[in-house]
UniProtKB/TrEMBL annotation:
<dbReference type="GO" id="GO:0009086">
    <property type="term" value="P:methionine biosynthetic process"/>
</dbReference>
<keyword id="KW-0486">Methionine biosynthesis</keyword>
<keyword id="KW-0520">NAD</keyword>
<keyword id="KW-0560">Oxidoreductase</keyword>
<dbReference type="GO" id="GO:0050661">
    <property type="term" value="F:NADP binding"/>
</dbReference>
<comment type="similarity">
    <text>Belongs to the homoserine dehydrogenase family.</text>
</comment>
<dbReference type="InterPro" id="IPR002912">
    <property type="entry name" value="ACT_dom"/>
</dbReference>
<dbReference type="GO" id="GO:0004412">
    <property type="term" value="F:homoserine dehydrogenase activity"/>
</dbReference>
<feature type="binding site">
    <location>
        <position position="105"/>
    </location>
    <ligand>
        <name>NADPH</name>
    </ligand>
</feature>
<keyword id="KW-0791">Threonine biosynthesis</keyword>
<keyword id="KW-0028">Amino-acid biosynthesis</keyword>
<dbReference type="Pfam" id="PF01842">
    <property type="entry name" value="ACT"/>
</dbReference>
<feature type="active site" description="Proton donor">
    <location>
        <position position="205"/>
    </location>
</feature>
<dbReference type="InterPro" id="IPR036291">
    <property type="entry name" value="NAD(P)-bd_dom_sf"/>
</dbReference>
<keyword id="KW-0521">NADP</keyword>
<feature type="binding site">
    <location>
        <begin position="9"/>
        <end position="16"/>
    </location>
    <ligand>
        <name>NADP(+)</name>
    </ligand>
</feature>
<dbReference type="InterPro" id="IPR019811">
    <property type="entry name" value="HDH_CS"/>
</dbReference>
């Protein structure tokens, strides 16, 4: 075998980036593998549009089976995204005895167990570095150089769209909807940005990361997921008064009683923490291992070139295995052998303990503060500090913002439900959780 033959499914923006990288850095890749890596087939429903790269038209096909049925193709790259037909294509590639590289975090978050099991039966590998953090090599680090550690936590800013929006809202005082429209125009947000701004994309990535870090199966549907659509400029300003910055954070923690916290939500991060200064479309992932201690990975979490970099990195790793004659390899995609993968219990969100910032919009009248404080105290929630502003726009409603000491989520929700029933509350109260110790 003079070259490693590859089939590519999905010739969109990322696929074009992979083609460009393999063409531009062919000599570099060959030096690192010992053999060349060449694309033999590219399958896409649209094979006529200009992608900004030149390929031999004979390589292009609208029939994905041309890749599965080609015995010369050793590795299949799946870049169509989504659940179906991506899942069927990946399973067909595995059944045909081909290794798979994918950037599809949604697929792995929901169907990873089935895909990994199929790969193990066929003795092929599934690599997915680009599924989390774009070009940031965090997954290979967890499975490789950091694999001797027991991880206690993983935190991350993992969605460039949300981080771009929150950055501009923070730095410029811009309106959420205006910044979202700008993000679409710049290509930072999809035409339908729901998965991004509602936290679903981040939760997909957390499911993959937490599985790797803690060696457990994660039920994606059990991840508490909130997006940033309810965050307003007033929340951002009050957070900064208290010494925090709001970020959409993915959080995975192994508790002292061997339960797992997995949650995605807007989070107030201390200004002194490096994550607070991760701005724009950049991502950052913070890990804590028992021997290595805290480690921070930072870089572009999406985009054509960073994602292509991660995909070709997986190609190089698989090609080295092929060149070394490794066959029927029972891979451990989660970094753990099958017999060591467990199912840790997930801590119910109601039992999570955090401090929070509460924002109430209340009528400016006697007894309001006493009423709010009384309900909080009744539910075991103590007040650390409070800010009340003057009346605005000549109206009677004023914001009252309270930072609490740590309290149980269930108690906080119960208190908010009672407070929101009071006649003097003008709008639904807001809750933003705080993470003071990101270790």
């Amino acid at each position: 075998m003079n070259e490693i033959k590859v089939g590519l499914i999905g010739f969109g923006n990322i696929g074009a980036g992979v083609v460009r990288l393999l063409q531009k850095n062919a000599e570099t890749v060959q030096q690192k593998v010992g053999r060349g890596i060449s694309l033999k087939r590219i399958a896409d429903l649209d094979i006529t549009s200009d992608r900004g790269v030149t390929v031999d038209p004979a390589m292009l096909t609208t029939d994905v089976n041309d890749i599965f049925n080609d015995p010369e193709i050793s590795i299949v790259i799946e870049l169509i995204g989504g659940y179906e037909p991506a899942k069927s294509f990946v399973l067909k590639a595995i059944e045909a005895g081909k290794h798979v590289v994918t950037a599809n975090k949604a697929l792995l978050a929901l169907h990873g167990d089935e895909i990994y099991a199929a790969a193990a039966r066929k003795g092929v590998e599934v690599q997915f570095e680009a599924a989390v953090g774009g070009g940031i090599p965090v997954l290979s680090a967890i499975k490789g150089n950091l694999s001797g550690n027991r991880f206690s936590s993983v935190f991350g800013i993992m969605n460039g769209t949300c981080n771009y929006i929150l950055t501009r809202m923070t730095q410029e005082g811009a309106d959420f909807n205006d910044v979202l429209q700008s993000a679409k125009e710049l290509g930072y947000a999809e035409p339908d940005p729901t998965f991004d701004i509602e936290g679903v994309d981040t939760a997909h990535k957390l499911a993959v990361l937490a599985s790797l870090c803690f060696g457990t199966k994660i039920d994606f549907n059990a991840i508490h997921t909130e997006g940033i659509t309810a965050i307003s400029g007033i929340d951002i300003r009050f957070a900064e008064q208290f010494g925090y910055r709001i970020k959409l954070l993915a959080i995975g923690k192994l508790t002292s009683d061997n339960q797992l916290e997995v949650r995605v939500h807007p989070t107030m991060i201390p200004l002194r923490n490096p994550l607070a200064d991760v701005n724009g479309v950049f991502n950052a992932i913070h890990l804590t291992g028992d021997f290595v201690g805290p480690v921070l990975f930072y870089g572009r979490g999406a985009g054509q070139n960073p994602t292509a970099s991660a995909i070709v990195g997986d190609l190089v790793a698989l090609s080295r295995s092929i060149c070394a004659g490794v066959q029927n390899r029972r891979s451990a995609p989660l970094g753990f052998q099958d017999s060591s993968i467990t199912t840790l219990p997930l801590k119910p969100m109601e039992e999570i303990v955090t401090s929070v910032m509460l924002r109430f919009t209340a009528q400016d009248q006697p007894g309001v503060l006493a009423g709010i404080a009384g309900v909080l105290g009744k539910n075991g929630i103590s007040i650390e500090s409070m800010v009340q502003t003057a009346r605005h726009n000549g109206g009677q409603a004023v914001p009252i913002v309270i930072k609490t000491h740590e309290a149980r989520e269930g108690a906080i929700r119960a208190a908010l439900a009672e407070i929101d029933s009071f006649d003097f509350i003008s709008e639904k109260s807001r809750l933003i959780r705080i993470e003071d110790n990101l270790e």
